[in-house]
Design the sequence.
């Protein structure tokens, strides 16, 4: 016999199983706690170095854009750009950081950054003011460049050529000399003399090598020939 009283409908459909978070699990999760990328001091140092490289690339790109827009003086640009490039290389001198970094293009893809001007400057390895001097210097004679600057540039060319003849063919031996040479040349003249572009080409080649990496026999021969040709082109501007 059925009851005349209507049955109260249940508020929810019963399920055979239900899940209730345990207090012990909930206690292990703290939403206010900072998530750390590292657990050791070595990992911390690695992430700090990678973060610094990231900031260097972004800052360098901004500096390059400012220089193109003439929003920064040549002096400030040269100093800042040179310092950033040195910091970039210094960070990558560590084998652990270099291994995690892989290469510039891989790093940019991983962290989703697009800095074309910084990429080009890092590839060349020297500020644009050194690569392409914008000042107007005049060779010797009639209020031209000081004789001491001419002598300094000539001595650096000779030192560079002597270094090759003495078997000094590693990047860390040649690159500093080549940078000093083009800086000295630019103090004498801004003229794009014959074979000057070869100095920049070798700067780029050496810049992309590891510090202890060496030129092979054919490269060393080409380097010596190109530097001798550039030296002759430089001397021709002084006559």
Sequence:
């Amino acid at each position: 016999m059925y009851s005349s009283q209507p049955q109260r409908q249940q508020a929810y459909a019963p399920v055979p199983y239900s899940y209730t978070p345990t207090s012990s699990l909930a206690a292990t999760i703290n939403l206010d706690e900072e998530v750390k990328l590292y657990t050791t001091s070595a990992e911390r140092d690695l992430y700090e170095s990678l973060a610094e490289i990231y900031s260097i690339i972004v800052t360098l790109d901004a500096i390059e854009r400012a220089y193109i827009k003439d929003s920064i003086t040549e002096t400030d640009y040269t100093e800042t750009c040179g310092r950033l490039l040195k910091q970039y290389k210094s960070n990558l001198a560590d084998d652990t950081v270099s291994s995690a970094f892989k290469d510039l293009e891989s790093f940019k893809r991983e962290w989703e950054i697009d800095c074309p001007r910084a990429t080009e400057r890092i590839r060349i390895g020297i500020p644009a003011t050194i690569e392409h001097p914008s000042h107007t210097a005049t060779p010797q004679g009639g209020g031209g460049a000081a004789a001491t600057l001419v002598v300094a540039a000539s001595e650096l060319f000779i030192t560079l050529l002597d270094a090759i003849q003495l078997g000094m063919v590693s990047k860390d031996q040649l690159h500093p000399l080549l940078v000093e040479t083009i800086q000295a040349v630019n103090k004498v003249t801004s003229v794009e003399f014959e074979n000057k572009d070869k100095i920049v080409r070798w700067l780029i080649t050496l810049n992309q090598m590891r510090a202890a990496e060496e030129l092979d026999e054919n490269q060393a021969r080409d380097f010596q020939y190109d530097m001798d040709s550039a030296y002759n082109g430089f001397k021709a501007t002084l006559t």
About this structure: The CA atoms of residues 139 and 145 lie 5 Å apart. The chain is about 60% helix and 0% strand. Confidence is low (pLDDT under 50) at residues 138-143. Residues 41-130 form a domain with the de novo design (two linked rop proteins) fold (CATH 1.20.1440.200).
